[in-house]
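Continuing from the previous page of notes. For each protein in this section, the sequence appears first, followed by its structure tokens. Read the first protein now.
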Amino acid sequence: MVPTTSASASAVGAPDVLAVDLAEPFQYEFFRNGLVIATLAGALCGLIGVFVVLRNMSYIGHGLSHAIFGGAALAAVLELNYFIGAGLWGLASGLMIGRVARRRIIGADAAIGVITTASFAMGLALQARYGQASRSIDAVLFGNVLGVFPGDIAAVAGVGIVSAIAVVLLYRKLLFTTFDPEVAAVSGVRVPAMEATLMFLLSATILVTVRVIGVLLISALLVLPAVSSRLFTNSFGRMLWLSPVLGALFGGVGMYASWYADVPSGAVIILCGTAAFIVAYVSVGVRRRARVAGLDHHSGPALTTG
């Protein structure tokens, strides 16, 4: 049967319609801004997340995000700038955690739990009490990547540049203190200064990205790119570039997919990262079983410093 003219036109026009549908989100400035900041936030969290994972700092990152939420809520109620209010509160919380932990009366994990949980509870109380500030507080709690401003993009990019420069300039010292802080101290490395530098970078990263992904999910974006890259490589140096690349992919792909899924962007970004981790984990498991069966003679070395 010879197709009709209308059917032929539909067949010819189908690719054009598909292309228009795929390009539709890019017509809107708020989506383009969201895509840029989601990609930058993923890359930044991927870079800092390498140290978070290798130093077992995941709980600290989780705690700092909750502490910053309390400061953000207070800033919203007092109509202060978000970065000033949340930043100062997060810094004060970090100092209190360090002071309590150094006294050894209670452990560092307990100090983090008490201080950050209290801060988070304060944020929830302020959210319930002051309805006029609830929208700003919700954006920090759940993330609002489509409501970002150019200033937010500049903040994430600025912290990303500073973090990258710090990692490059302090690479050997950070490497040494990450794997063997005691030997690093004996060798003349100022371990407390390196730890303070990492805490500052971690706090700044959470501060500028929490409004993109949300307090409840930010710790996952810090961890997923790093643990996924660890499955692909045994080199610390390669992790430092692979993890940001994966984080950027998680952010960009998740942001784009959320447009069509009609689901909050933060949740889709984390789901994309989780799916990638599962694929990597399964593939590594298959390779290990093949190695045990004698099908793969390459041994898996431990993490190296190269």
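Done with the first. The second protein uses the same format. Note its length before scrolling.
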Amino acid sequence: MPSLDTLSRREALAAAGLLCVGGSGGFLLRDEFDDRFGDDSNLPADVAPTDWPHPARDAAHTRHAPPESAPDARETGDGLDRAWSFERSPHGPERTRPVVANGTVFVAESRDAGPSALRAVDRTGGDERWAVRMDDASGAVVAVGDRVLHLHDAVEGTVLDARAAADGSLLWRRDEPGDSGLVGLPVVAGSRAYVGGSQGRTAVLGAHGLGGGRAAWRRSTDGSFLGPPAVDRRASTVVLQTLRGLAAFDTTDGERRWRDTFEQTPDDRANPNPYGWPLLADGRAFVATYEGLLRAYDFASGEVDWERRLDASGRYAHVFEPGAYADGVLFTVERFYDARPDVLHAVDAESGADRWTVAAADAGEGSLSNPTVCDGRVYLTLTVDGDDHELLRLDAGDGSVVDRTALSSFPYRAPIVAGGRVLVSTGDGFDVFR
């Protein structure tokens, strides 16, 4: 049997046990489970506690790092010390989502013109360890154990790659379902990678073994998929966010457990589609929509525990975005589509009520990134007019500002806290603090 590296798209799909039917513009999918493939080599995902293997840290998107990941320096009120900076190409920084594993920062750089690149950079000093140039548009990556998973758009369609973390060499490649141009994010839990995609107006979710990428199961549901899936391994549940809805599946065999649809309100300007990524924690799935809805589901049953809705009146909408979760508190940013500053809410996960709020105006006019929580501190960036952008550190108990640190350029992503370092992706590259 020829290597999967050299197989055509159709041959690779056939080898993976998928149904591929030729047609105009793509192929047809059916729900499928094949016991021959199982967990591929039953390869576990080796993740150290201080790693940041996913863009939102874990498969559940909690953005909650353990205390041992906190910066090395003592809090003095004067901000964090800069450890190093890494300059990169200015093309497409808004599409860059770095991850950290085994002392290395991995990032896929997408460019509108010219080759893209997958890079590995030393976390401590910023030296580049390796780089792989690509002709296709690079998407987000996940780094677990000795490999880096990369779902990206290629000439022949959307593909899932696994590369060696040590040198970037290709370990295996699998075709993924999806419309041309789709770039998504794999999510790893246990010995599987879960990947969402779209085929027309149908959302597709697949589970792949980490050893060789072969499909254990694949399922479909109504509506194009929006954002990466979220996985709670202990509850054997994977949640997929779709256009106007949410669906939960069993991680073992892909059986659908429940599905819910977001109904549109009478306000014609309201948009019931999901906003941001789903977040799973303590038996709940937290989701938000463009019409200002924030909802908590019991993800075992699909029942709604609570919901709250922002006032949709007025000329401009504002929305919630689930950001981080720690110790029974959901940290979510209320975003405005006008000149009003963003607001960070610390929401009680049991009741949905605010414990405290902090407006960007309280720290300086501007917009806030998603938060990251570590060791009783909330890390987030403040973006303002001009060049005075900052990294803020707040007390998770009451929202008071602990310190603030100047950034070199416009921040594009929420802070990453891993291995005693805080990494902020900016328009110039990375700012790394200790």
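What the second structure shows: The radius of gyration is 21 Å. The CA atoms of residues 227 and 277 lie 6 Å apart. We return to this in next week's lecture.
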